[in-house]
Amino acid sequence: MSYDLSPQVYEPRRQAFDYLTKRFGQREATRYEEGTIEVQQQENFHYRPLWNPAVEIFDPSMTQLKLEDWYSFLDPRQYYYGTYNQARNKSMEVLDAELNYAAERGLLERVAGEWREVFLSCLLPMRHYEYGGTTSLSYVSRFAYGTSIEQCASFNTFDKMANSQVITKLTLMLPNPEQWMAEGKQRWLDAEHLQPLRAIIEKSWLITDWAETILLQNLLLDTTLYGLLYDEFDRVAIDNGVMAVSFIHKYLSDWLKDNSRWTNHLIETFVNESQHGEANRAALQEMVDRWAPQVVEALKPLRKVFELPQRPGNFDAALERVVQSLERNLEKVGLALNLNATGMAVTAAD
């Protein structure tokens, strides 16, 4: 007796759900597409919010920007729950290995020693900046319309919390970590050079247009602050031989590059929309003109951080490079940087 073990291939009757086939034709959908597109609830709401009966529970009018198709934006990273967690787990494993190396080689001693004042004035208070971003992005993840946007905002919210915890992780490796964290919080609340930055974070919590929150937090604040502290000031840390904080700087800098991919693509989607693109561009440009000068002004007191190390950094040159990088990125997404529009100076030396 013989058996025929040749495989039998059965073609599926359907390659994807109907709503995906209408968009992409007869092809197999990705898991990201299946779990993202057309998930936004659009009808059969039970009641309107008591705090604002003028809108629905999920309402596109929660931003002044408009899209004919809210799924014309898709995350270029194709993150859904599985791929997002895999990516973040991999990057965290790398950071853990680097911090363990720093501890084994005694590199943390310089942070707790000669770098103590710099750490307390710079990186440690950023735990609270990141937590402020968590609050802002939580608002976006609740009120953003379209699952593809909400999903990115939700992951961004978790990332900001994780960024705060990454700084905490380094602090817990230092002697008397409770004292360090208490002092870092007090610096965030009281240190003169941090108050303009803290003021903008607290103002961002009052923004009701979720698209404006994304623009301020991701496109303006994170882009400039990360560039100044985690790229420019990182060179100062290396020049002073403080490699342990450099590992954190690199993690945060790499995270920004990943996070900027969806932020830039979302802004481009609004600006290039066929029906509402010009109106969207005008609204976004007005937001940039209003917030960018305030962000740049809030960075200028961080000159103190560059002057603290034994081998200080060139703050003016660093801020100029950061502003130029912001200008290039805004041009890339179809916007412009007009710091003089509100009478504020462009130069870092002012």
**Helix fraction bin:** 55-70%
What's the number of extended β-strand segments? 0
- Broad structural category: mainly alpha
- Main beta sheet strand tally, sense and closure: none
Mean pLDDT: 93
Beta fraction of the residues? under 5%
Residue stretches low in confidence (pLDDT < 50, at least 5 long) are 342-350
Radius of gyration: 23 Å
Element order, helices and strands?
HHHHHHHHHHHHHH
| N-C termini distance | 92 Å
Give the count of helical stretches.
14
What gross morphology would you assign?
A: globular
Description:
- There is one protein chain.
- The chain is mainly alpha-helical.
- It is 63% helix and 0% strand.
- The chain has 14 helices and no strands.
Write a brief structural summary:
The chain is mainly alpha-helical and 350 residues long.
Structure characteristics:
350 residues, 14 helices, disordered C terminus, 63% helix, mainly alpha, globular
Question: How are the secondary structure elements laid out?
Answer:
Blueprint: H1 18-24, H2 31-34, H3 81-104, H4 108-112, H5 116-121, H6 126-143, H7 147-172, H8 177-190, H9 195-204, H10 210-239, H11 243-271, H12 277-299, H13 303-307, H14 315-332
